[in-house]
Specification:
Elements lengths: L7 E11 L2 E11 L4 E5 L6 H8 L7 E7 L4 E3 L5 H6 L2 E3 L12 H12 L1 H9 L2 H20 L15 H13 L5 E5 L7 H17 L3 E5 L3 H7 L2 E6 L2 E6 L1 H4 L3 H12 L2
Parallel strand pairs: 3-8, 3-9, 6-7, 7-8
Antiparallel strand pairs: 1-2, 1-4, 4-5, 9-10
Helix pairs in contact: 3-4, 3-5, 3-6, 4-5
Bound molecules: adenosine-5'-triphosphate and magnesium ion.
Amino acid sequence: MDAMTAVGLDIDGVCLSFGGNRVLKDVSFSVGAGSITAIIGPNGAGKSSLLNVITGVYTPDAGDVTIRGRSAEVDVLALKPYELLRHGVARTFQNLELVAHMTVLENVLVGRHLRFRAAQIRSMLRTPGAMREERAHRRVCLDTLDFLGIGDVAHQEVHGLPYGVQKRVELARALVTDPRLLLLDEPVAGLNDEETAEMADTMRLIRDTGTCTQVIIEHDMKLIMSVADQIVVLDFGTLLTQGTPAQVSTHPEVIEAYLGSQASP
Ligand SMILES: Nc1ncnc2c1ncn2[C@@H]1O[C@H](COP(=O)(O)OP(=O)(O)OP(=O)(O)O)[C@@H](O)[C@H]1O
Ligand SMILES: [Mg+2]
């Protein structure tokens, strides 16, 4: 995949079931390179499952997932998990998946090393070149922590840090892999209003770099309406509607399910 350029994403006819439970029913949509797409829908709609299909955690019964660079297309479903990062696909999880008794910096370095595996092996040899490379990786990680406003806790253990800080550590770990496509599962769940606004600013800053497409699953409609270029609505595994925030917010079922309740005090 082209370096440093955001990629587009095509989801085409994805079907997924567990036993008799049809979780995704022929879901298709496209995401423009460099844009922010929000996936919304009630609990159990299949949002996280869709992310799990894109990242190879779940194998769909049917359908294709493709990322589009300027000069190449990649069949994402054919990639091995470790190949995803090398093709620039990174994600965060709905439930924090950090190592509690490692420092913030160590957690973020794990992401960097997963992306640059050769570096990890060479760094164990402790040659001067390898140590220089390792210092460069640490620099990238520390700069990313600064970018997210949490550089001051780099050397603290993750456990005991406020939840809002831990959410950013997880984002940092994804960002240091130099993603071209970043998948965020409920990035502001559990955050207060100020932290949510900061996360929205961060997403806009990432978009402004032009290097990374963002797909976010979120329940916070205020955040979605303010940052998303496109909204995809899933309802019990079916794509209900998709479009700009302005388009989607005129859809009767979306108003009923999401906007009506928020409009009343
Ligand atoms: N590994 C699994 N095994 C069996 N069923 C699963 C599995 N993963 C998801 N499901 C089922 O798929 C459906 C969709 O779940 P999913 O977690 O994708 O929903 P979601 O839209 O992310 O919901 P939420 O907003 O609560 O996070 C649910 O009925 C769930 O029980
Ligand atoms: Mg979910």
